[in-house]
Structure formats: structure tokens, C-alpha cells
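Sat 14:20. Reprocessing the chain from the morning session after the first attempt stalled halfway. Input below, unchanged.
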Amino acid sequence: MKKNKLRKKLMLVGMCLSMFAFSACKQKTDGADGTIVEISLSDAQIDVDGKEVGSNTSDAVYVANDIIYYEAGKDFSYGEGTEDDAHETEEALNHTVVHITQPGTYRVTGKLSKGQIAVDLGENAKDDPEAVVTLILNGADVTCQVAPAVIFYSVYECGSGDVDNASNDIDTQTAGANIIIADDTVNTMNGSYVAKIYDAESVILNDDETEVIDASKLHKYDGAVYSKMSMNVDGEEKGSGVLNINAENEGLDTELHLTINGGNININSGNDGINTNEDNVSVTTINGGTLTISVNGKTGEGDGIDSNGWLVINGGNVIAQACSDSADAGIDSDMGIYINGGTVIASGHMLDRIEDGGQTYAVFNFSQKQAGGKTLSLKNESDTTLLDICPDNEYSVLIYSSPELVSGTYTLWNDDTKLSSQGGIVGSPGMEGMNPEGMEPPEGMEIPEGAEGMEPPEGMEIPEGAEGMEPPEGMEMPEEIEGMEPPEDGVRPDKPGQEMENFENPDNTQERIYEFQINQGANMFSGIG
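Finished this time. C-alpha cells:
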């Protein structure tokens, strides 16, 4: 991998910051025999290698009006979609599906205002290492109003869904689904989604035949760009190509693993910007490129990046804004977040555990929701600004990590006002149940050695509704421990040990100006107000 250390400005819906550009190792952009199939899109005619495409299903590329969508007018036994998820048949038939049925590299140009690119190499492709398709987006613009704009149904799956052997270290180089963003091009994918449709033969109804008690999934595709198999996304040599994804629901999804190696990817989504959705298995890996995500919250929720397994960031530039109005995170992972490199800025209302990935990071928790469109600046001891950020979303948790964030003393500013805080304790990940250095228990309370996880004596039960119980003799509890509860919209109850620095309005005279020390390593700020 190569690093380009030229500083540049990045912007997405009002976000602006200085950071390092990063480009990853590039994949080959031609087929096994060195050929590239040229697909030219237009509403009037679709050409393949200069000739009008046909409808012969045995061809490597053919077109049909057979898009998979959630059909209107169906009853409860059809699926789990609502009226808002359903589409009329006439609307669906207006979409042209460009089918790709054979392995190879396909360069896509032109515009399709109602259509889809669908890759399906057959039911045996999942186990065939030769079943690999690479789409080179070379100024492609596809809009689909009833389903994903691009979907990989069946190609080679390089990973495994085995939970017992799942790991955050995944190599997807041989994955069957690949997207490359051609240099110096702008590509746009406007996509919808397909709500869950049942396999009709699997549906089991209750005795009264009024509800489904069991059914298998036949279709469910949440992302505007979607793959049922593991997928790679990359740029070409210069990494100057742009891919814009505008999603009615989720943006860029895979059902197993996703690796982003390069390119400039901008996602505006109604729900999660990125989702990899195999529980306790999926790995979202970011090695390079520039990824900017804004969740507009049209569905009422949405994380910037949501991995049902792990999230691993090794390089590149990541800006992720969660939904303003829900308890969601800029970066979210069920199994752990590792920041090993790159520049990361994530804003939302939740924090998932960040493991010790080796690169310094800071987590700022604000006691009140912060309005979008206001600039925050992080300055070092020399009064040099490391970060200028003006998130478009409302947020109460801000995460920042960068190679530039090294040992030293820093201040946080809102325009020309230096912000203040209630705490000042520096901790590290992995501190659940521990007393961070410099944090004393409340006056009069001693924590006995080895008391962590202590159970009450045998035969002693703690009564229900023990509110108001007096402490043991000799132990005094203070009248009030201000800030002992996590701030509203702050920390998930299933993620212990995630208390963070609380920032307040500088007009509060009881607060002190915030000046904090960042130590080398993966540190977070925690404290009690």
C-alpha cells in the first residue's frame, strides 16, 4: 500500500477537515484473458462491445424487464413489507435489468434512468473460485426506484459464515464481487431496496391462518448497491474516481464481508450508510480511499457504518455521520472496532467499544445534543489546528483518530470559544469494572481490594426495590454524585465501560476550561461530571 502525504481538504454536506490521502493496492482491471467487455447504457438502447444487446439468456450480457421487487397488493403471507415498501407491477416493469451471467471484467458507461445491473453466475458460482465479476464504473449513472441499482446475486464466496471460526482478519482479494471506480470519472447509483419476501413453500401459518409463525427468506436486499457475497470496492491507479450512492434505505451492503481499498465514495442514505449483516461474522475493512457518509434519517434511524461483526480501519479517510434523531453511531460494530490507521471522524449518539488498534483516537461526549453546521476545532500546544469539522447531523458523540494525533496537550474550540468540560480523566479501552488512574471513589467510600464482581454473602438476598437502603456502617454515600448517569443519547447499556468526557456550554461558570493530554496509543477520554 502507498500513502500520499499531501494534505488536502475534504468536504461532505458541510464537513471539512485536513487529513492524509491514502491509496491502496490496486486490483487488475481486465479479465483473465486480458479482455474487457464494454457496456454502454442509455434509455434508448444498451450496447455491448458496440452492438445492441439482446434478450438471449445464454449470452454473457442480456436485458429483460424482470426486476425482483416487493409487490403491492399482497397479504401478510407474502412477506414483511409495508405499503411504503411495495411497488405496483407497472412501475417495476418500466425498469430494464442488465443481466451479467459469465465471469469477466465489464466496463460500464452511460445513464439508465430506470434500471438495474444484476450479476448472477448461477447456483454453483458460490463455490467456484473462477466465478469472479469485476464492474469498472466509468461514468455510469443508474437509477432504480424499486430495488438496488447494482446487485450481485451469485458469484464466488471467498469467506465463510462459520461463527465458531470467525475473525476480524479477513482477506477478500479473491472475492467474486468487485467494483472499481475508474480514474477521473463520476459515477452515481440511485437505489431503493427490497423488503423481506418469504419463500412461499416455507410459510407456516397458525391454526387460524391469520399470521405467519415460520418462514424462510427468499429475497431481502436493503442496500442501493448490494451483494449477497463478499465484495471489494477499489479505485484505479490514481484513485481519483468518484462513486456517489444515494439510497432510499441503506447505502452499500453485503451479506458477508466488505473491503474498501480505494476511490472516493460518497453515501447519502435513509438508513445505515454501510451495512455488513452476518451476525458475529461479517467484517467491514477499510484500507484506503475516501469514504464520506451522511445518514439523512428518512427511515428514522441509521448508523454511518454498521457491521454485524467487526469494523477494521487500516487506512484511508473515513467521515461517517449517523442519523440525527436516533440512538445510532457514526461507526458501529457488534464484535469490535479496530482503528489501525487512516483518518476517522464519526459523529452520532452512541459509542461502540473501540479496541486497541494501535492508533491514537479521541472520543468526545457532549452532555447536550450538538446542532449541525457548527464548526469544532482541535488545536495542539502550538495553536495549530489539526481538525476543523462542521457535521451536518446533530450529534452527542464525536470520534476522531489520525496519524497526526500524537502525544501532547490539546484544546477543543467552537469557533473562537475554547470549550470546557466537567472531567479530565484519560483512560484506555478494556477498562470495564476498573478504577481509572486518577479517579477516586466518592468521599467516604472505600472499594475493598478484590471487590470486583463481589457477590452478597451466602444466604443474603438483596430485596426487590432496595431504593433507600442505608450503606454499611462506616460507609457514607455523598448526597449527590453529579454525572454518574451516562448522558442522554450517550452510551449503550449493553456496552459497559464507555463513559466519556462530558463537554458543556462555556457559559456555565462552574466549568473549567478544557485542556487535555493525549498519550500515544489508543486512548479515550472518560470522566464523571
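The first strand starts at residue 2 and ends at 12.
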